[in-house]
């Protein structure tokens, strides 16, 4: 009885070439160079340089199955070539990253490789530790462990705050550290980020939910929410 030998696995370069031909069938295939890099996040990029197609892929994805790499190449080349990315590829890639084993790997890599700028809690107008402890007592029974607290380098209007679980840090936009910003507005942004401590993200069926139903219900209980959101709208729209 003769046993057929297994077919060799398709290389990342071969997968990329197949995707490229599908997107631009009449264009000569360029030289493809793929490098897996030790990034702190599952970041990837593609560009043309000196006639070559160069892709830099996070080494977190070096062992990814061929269908996942295919989806990633559709996303990267679609952006590079200004082609629409079919939804199935975006869903396939996102589902892979949201797997529990991948989330654990991403979390560990961010801890080991990532650098987190945290300025410290004392701002020109507000002290985040003081506000945190006040909110902790009022809304969480004082049970939340205090993470690192700090202000961003820039006064961002698009990202007023974020919670980084890999570095156990909450960073708020420097835009909020101003006497023109009412304290309830600052409190709501910090309260929102504190809810991420109380209600961690959930992964179900390959999808990752950051703002769960319980999260949203707790957020709606913030006093004067309608007025706070109106003040926030004016703040981010102000020239």
CATH architecture of the largest domain: 2-Layer Sandwich
CATH hierarchy, class of the largest domain = Alpha Beta
Strand order of the largest sheet: 1-3-2
Q: Do you know the CATH topology of the largest domain? A: Zincin-like
- 3D shape: elongated
Classification by helices and strands: alpha/beta
CATH superfamily of the largest domain: Metalloproteases ("zincins"), catalytic domain
Helices, by number, come to 8
Please indicate the percent range of residues in DSSP E strands (runs of 2 or more): 15-25%
How many extended strands?
8
Tally of distinct domains: 2
Q: What proportion of the residues is helical, as a percent range? A: 40-55%
**SSE topology string:** HEEEHHHHEEEHEEHH
| Distance N to C terminus | 78 Å
Mean pLDDT across all amino acids:
88
* Rg, nearest Å: 23 Å
Q: How is the biggest beta sheet arranged?
A: 3 strands, mixed
Low-confidence stretches: none
List keywords for this structure.
239 residues; alpha/beta; Zincin-like; 2 domains; 3-stranded mixed β-sheet
Structure characterization notes:
The protein has two domains: 12-113, Zincin-like; 128-237, Zincin-like. It is α/β, with parallel strands linked by helices and 239 residues long. A hairpin with a 2-residue loop joins strand 2 (44-49) and strand 3 (52-58). Helices cover 42% and strands 16% of the residues. It contains eight helices and eight strands. The model has no long low-confidence stretch (mean pLDDT 88). The strands form three sheets. A three-stranded mixed beta sheet has the order 1-3-2. The protein has a three-stranded mixed beta sheet with strand order 4-6-5, with helices on one face. It has a two-stranded antiparallel sheet with strand order 7-8.
